[in-house]
Amino acid sequence: MPHTLATHRYLTLAEGLFGPLTSKTANSAIRYLPERIVAVLDSSQAGQTVQKVLGFGGAIPVVGTIEEGLRGAPTALLVGIAPQGGQLPEAWRGVLAAAIAAGLDVVSGLHFYLGDDPELAALAERAGVQIVDLRKPPSALPVSHGLARDVEPLTVLTVGTDCNIGKMTAALQVRDALRTRGARVGFAATGQTGILIEGWGIAVDSVVADFISGAAERLVLQACHGNDIVLVEGQGSLVHPGYSGVTLGLLHGTLPDAMILCHLPSRTFPYGGNGAYSWMPLPGPPDAVRLCEAMVEPLKPSRVIAVSLNTWDLTDAQARDAIARAEDETGLPATDPVRFDPAPLVDAVLAEQARKAERREAGRGGSGG
Amino acid sequence: MPHTLATHRYLTLAEGLFGPLTSKTANSAIRYLPERIVAVLDSSQAGQTVQKVLGFGGAIPVVGTIEEGLRGAPTALLVGIAPQGGQLPEAWRGVLAAAIAAGLDVVSGLHFYLGDDPELAALAERAGVQIVDLRKPPSALPVSHGLARDVEPLTVLTVGTDCNIGKMTAALQVRDALRTRGARVGFAATGQTGILIEGWGIAVDSVVADFISGAAERLVLQACHGNDIVLVEGQGSLVHPGYSGVTLGLLHGTLPDAMILCHLPSRTFPYGGNGAYSWMPLPGPPDAVRLCEAMVEPLKPSRVIAVSLNTWDLTDAQARDAIARAEDETGLPATDPVRFDPAPLVDAVLAEQARKAERREAGRGGSGG
Predict the structure, then answer these.
(1) For A300, which residue in chain B has the nearest alpha carbon?
(2) Pick the CATH number of A10-133 from 3.50.4.10, 3.30.200.20, 3.40.50.11810, 3.40.50.720
(3) pLDDT tens profile B101-125
């Protein structure tokens, strides 16, 4: 049987860019699918372990060539980096061709669809392998009608003060902790890395603009099946000069019952564009909370119920300070769910779920009596 | 020489849907390119004049067949309606084929690209005619870097309390009046109808979601050339459940110096989806002003400077009442620039232009002395 996103063993391409902040897709695959990552390909750091480069990931080796990577018997080459704009660097063609020639599928999160590249498509066909473009959206999407606003499960969207600060990671950490506590939790993946990890989803930044909310609506409805809580992976921020449209469309398509605000304390201006946004100061958590709540309020009241910090670049003491400051500024529970116990976020979600269940029960009682 | 968007004479297809609110593209073409509309095709109203159906447009005939329409010697069939979702109604294939066979180009604002339809593309190639899809965006768009925030001309974006209430029309009425007063005015078209009228532009609702702001940025920079004022056609609304992402991306790509709020007093819930949004009350002008200003503030302070009302369905007395109420509620000048003199909007724009010129002059003086 051919391999799928649920079974692939990956050789992960991160050539020249493997690092804590520069290889988002690779790093998340390592965090959430560690048993399926056989090696990372980055010739500039060959011989290292993933643990040494990222601070997690254990003994997974960083290799310098495809040939070395094949020793771990991968079934697919994962393109583990997603440069802004998402074009295919010409230097990668040789690597991709070699991987295809070696019988590997190619799984990519680039904006540029590798499957649409005539040269690569021809090579893949000849070799009998698949090219999977994680960002490629389904062809027929609806315009949102707001159907997600009153689904039965509790819906929680991760929002943020910026893009690329850990909205997917926060949702996945909360998901795993909720499952440990016995909750039935769905995860609606909205970006290439989330889709890679979960095995399904829609990259909402890649759909035609009119259908951003419609894609989110469809994802939420689908993630509801068999679940009591649905966590929706957030994207971007409401004030990012490049990506805010995706963020608002996702918010209005999801119409969440509650939000978790994600924040990277060390970030001072919007991410991306090689510093092109240094003219703009980022909002702090209190402003971001107000903005998110104000922008969903006209459609459905929804509150930020907790703050998830990304403190990867701080010391333990600094991280604890940042968490205390976020709690103080917002009046909400806060933690770094990767570094510390995600319990404060999980408790907030479960309390919200109980409140929603009570409201539904009261509503039923009211209409019945 | 082949005809272009700047020279075509149109037979306008509005089959079964020709009316004040149901054939937006057709109606705007009639308003702004009346000398180039030879007839409207709607067999359900054949024999009428456009004036009788719309209340403007004079003696342009409504015809029931392609053959009748050809009597006016059109050079293109204009698809004059744009249903939500934008699929090609199967019933139109015969009409399109007949138009192509008669040697007409086809100009379409549908989401579905007629040029990508194998059957129509083959017919067009055989007949030696062009299919122009107005919504089809350029293939390579940038992610916005916020470059539009400090261009030399005054930039004004039309925003609104809902979609489909006259944001393009308001901008065009102001443009025409400003030109009458001698201003050099650029118009950045962001939708299929604006592109049809202006001859260039990008349908921002049709670009890949990550590039909404980038498309707007590119349009603004291009419209600046040789102009002192740039009017940007707005789209949707910040609280439309289906389209808000497009609206925010456009706002953050444009980063306008000022905004004109468009409002249809008779509208009570968001447009579209066959009433699917009746669960949501529309914000009034004061709330919409606050929301628009709050959402651009973190990137660049910008104010709503006037309110443009669409009173097509009110009596004169009701229209004057609505204008007085909007002025009273918002403290801003207001008018219906189609029904009445657009001067209040034009004066507000020119005053803002003078203020921007003063600020720039003061900035230069400060840095020099």
Answers:
(1) B280
(2) 3.40.50.720
(3) 999 999 998 888 999 999 999 999 9
Percent of chain A with pLDDT over 90: 88
Q: Taking the domains of chain B in order of start, what are their residue ranges?
A: 10-133, 147-366
Q: Which element (helix H / strand E) includes A255?
A: none
- The pLDDT assigned to A273 comes to 85
Selected residues 170-199 of chain A with any CB under 8 Å from a CB in chain B: none
Fold observed for domain B147-366: Rossmann fold (3.40.50)
Fold equal for A10-133 and A147-366: yes
Q: How far apart are CA A32 and CA B96, in angstroms?
A: 52
A112 contact partners, CB below 8 Å, separation of at least 6: A86, A87, A88
Residue B337 Cα, gap to closest chain A Cα (Å): 28
Is the Cβ pair A214, B242 closer than 8 Å?
yes
pLDDT, tens digit, 9 for 90 and up, residues A113-171: 999 999 999 999 999 999 999 999 998 899 999 999 999 999 999 999 999 999 999 99
Q: Which of residues 283-342 of A touch B (CB under 8 A)?
A: 283, 287, 291, 294-295, 298-299
Residue of chain B with shortest Cα separation from A146: B241
Whole-number pLDDT of residue A87: 67
Q: 3-state secondary structure string, B27-51? A: HHHHHHCHHHEEEEECHHHCCCEHH
Mean pLDDT for B195-204 is 96
Task: Assess contact for B245 and A212: CB atoms under 8 A.
Answer: yes
Give the mean pLDDT of chain A. Answer: 94
pTM beyond 0.95: no
pLDDT at A24 over 90: no
Coil, strand or helix at A359:
helix
- CA distances to B159, B163, B237, B243, B295 from B234, rounded to whole Å, are 5, 9, 9, 12, 15
Interchain proximity B210–A205, CB inside 8 Å: yes
For residue A109, which phi and psi values (nearest 5 degrees)?
-110, 15
What the block records as the tokens of B284 is 């009034």
Chain A residues touching residue B294 (CB < 8 angstroms): 291, 294
ipTM: 0.92
Report yes or no: B252 at the A interface, CB cutoff 8 Å.
Answer: yes
A250 within 8 A of A190, measured Cβ to Cβ: yes
Query: In this predicted model, what pLDDT tens digit does every residue of B256-278 receive, in sequence order?
Result: 999 999 999 999 999 988 889 99
Nearest to A213 among B242, B253, B280 (CB): B242
At residue B19, the pLDDT reads 94
Cβ atoms of B131 and B115 closer than 8 Å: yes
Torsion angle, alpha carbons of A173, A288, B259, B280, to 10:
70
